[in-house]
């Protein structure tokens, strides 16, 4: 009996030591957060990069649910609601959309404020045919180049007979008939949201603005950031034979010319890079080709793209801008151009990107930030002389702030970002006031 008790005591001691050792590694490992948590955690392995599909990079970034009374911006930290709804829609039979209305602000307001309706909102307009490609839906693929940025699905009835596609830029509304659909899977996703912020959609001079009705609380985050050596980029972006590579340096700005076909400029002061491909002189002829080639170029940069989303698409100027997102909100101040900017022209394509990529979240001792209501933000802008008509856009986003004592860690803090005169700035830079609620 004594021998048995001794064995038990020894096993207990081993268990305690093992627990302490495991706890030490978990708390000292920067990747201790669960990978399943949808805070857009990226992985640096090539296999994971290649698995990020185009319909994730080009996808809605906001989900709005209008119940019987109010509208809510919803999000699920454990499962991306937008991507899950897209997955549900892939099984639907959606016919070619028909025009319902255009340039009718009053009707448009009724559509985007319809009760019992879920909205998937893209940060930029895409063509209906591109949407068909992303969903692999033949009925939508046949559609013309009409653009939209909102998908509206009424969940009042069990069967969904129609969906609506709406464009904030010209108040165009398109209706598409739906078969083989049910509202149950989407209703279930709505109920699982663990972030629920009361909002209202207001039509302003420069578009549809999302107003947060009350002060909102959002968590701050800290991430480990990684970069690459210039040689890794030249090896990946140029031909494998680097014998023709000519390198020059001026004030810590390195230029790599590969013959007369490609040039990479790497500014080590700002860590911004610019790739010019003079052989890529064919301009995309369709909006779908425009998005496809932009997506492929982003992947070819070999940056982690799982938290990257298409942010702006300018079809006329052939510009694409991508930003990183955290918890459904865009990251600002990482650079002057977002995360990646691509331009197509007959002189060649240009890609601007940063040698700073979010890798894994790290422990943060920052408390949640409480931001003012959007109405209070507009009042603050008015106090310093900006009228509501001056505001071209307003978004809640995460501000990129590098830690002074650790260059490999960046803090992401929520705040309001305002666009006035085509310039994005945080609210405090426009007003010298904090966006935080006292």
TrEMBL record:
The keyword 4Fe-4S does not apply. It comes from the Bacteria. Residues 10-435 form the Regulatory protein YycH domain. Keywords: Membrane, Transmembrane, Transmembrane helix. The chain crosses the membrane at residues 6-27. It holds the Pfam family YycH. The keyword Nucleotide-binding does not apply. This is Regulatory protein YycH domain-containing protein. It comes from Companilactobacillus halodurans.
């Amino acid at each position: 009996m004594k021998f048995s008790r001794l064995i038990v005591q020894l096993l207990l001691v081993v268990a305690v030591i093992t627990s302490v050792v495991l706890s030490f590694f978990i708390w000292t490992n920067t990747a201790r957060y669960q990978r399943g948590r949808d805070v857009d955690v990226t992985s640096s392995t090539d296999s994971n990069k290649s698995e990020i599909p185009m319909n994730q990079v080009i996808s809605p970034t906001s989900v709005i649910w209008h119940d019987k009374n109010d509208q809510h911006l919803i999000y699920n930290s454990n499962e991306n609601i937008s991507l899950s709804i897209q997955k549900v829609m892939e099984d639907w039979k959606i016919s070619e959309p028909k025009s319902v209305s255009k340039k009718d602000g009053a009707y448009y307001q009724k559509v985007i404020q319809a009760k019992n309706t879920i909205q998937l909102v893209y940060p930029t307009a895409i063509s209906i045919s591109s949407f068909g490609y992303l969903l692999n839906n033949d009925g939508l693929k046949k559609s013309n180049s009409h653009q939209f940025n909102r998908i509206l699905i009424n969940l009042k009835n069990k069967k969904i007979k129609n969906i609506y596609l709406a464009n904030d830029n010209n108040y165009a509304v398109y209706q598409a008939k739906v078969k083989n659909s049910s509202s149950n899977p989407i209703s279930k996703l709505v109920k699982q949201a663990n972030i629920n912020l009361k909002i209202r959609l207001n039509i302003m001079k420069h578009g549809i603005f999302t107003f947060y009705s009350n002060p909102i609380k959002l968590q701050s985050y800290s991430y480990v950031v990684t970069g690459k050596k210039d040689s890794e980029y030249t090896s990946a972006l140029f031909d494998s034979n680097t014998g023709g590579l000519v390198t020059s340096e001026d004030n810590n700005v390195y230029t790599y010319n590969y013959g007369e076909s490609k040039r990479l400029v790497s500014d080590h002061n700002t860590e911004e890079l610019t790739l010019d491909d003079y052989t890529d002189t064919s301009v995309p002829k369709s909006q779908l080709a425009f998005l496809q080639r932009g997506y492929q170029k982003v992947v070819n940069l070999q940056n982690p793209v799982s938290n990257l989303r298409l942010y702006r698409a300018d079809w006329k100027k052939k510009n694409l801008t991508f930003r990183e997102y955290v918890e459904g909100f865009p990251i600002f101040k990482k650079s002057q151009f977002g995360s990646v900017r691509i331009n197509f022209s007959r002189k060649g394509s240009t890609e601007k990107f940063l040698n700073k990529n979010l890798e894994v979240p790290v422990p943060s001792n920052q408390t949640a930030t409480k931001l003012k209501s959007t109405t209070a933000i507009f009042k603050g802008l008015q106090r310093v002389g900006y009228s509501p008509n001056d505001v071209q856009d307003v978004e809640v986003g995460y501000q990129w702030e590098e830690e002074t004592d650790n260059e490999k860690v960046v803090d992401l803090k929520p705040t309001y970002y305002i666009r006035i005169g085509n310039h994005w700035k945080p609210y405090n830079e426009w007003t010298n006031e904090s966006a935080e609620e006292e």
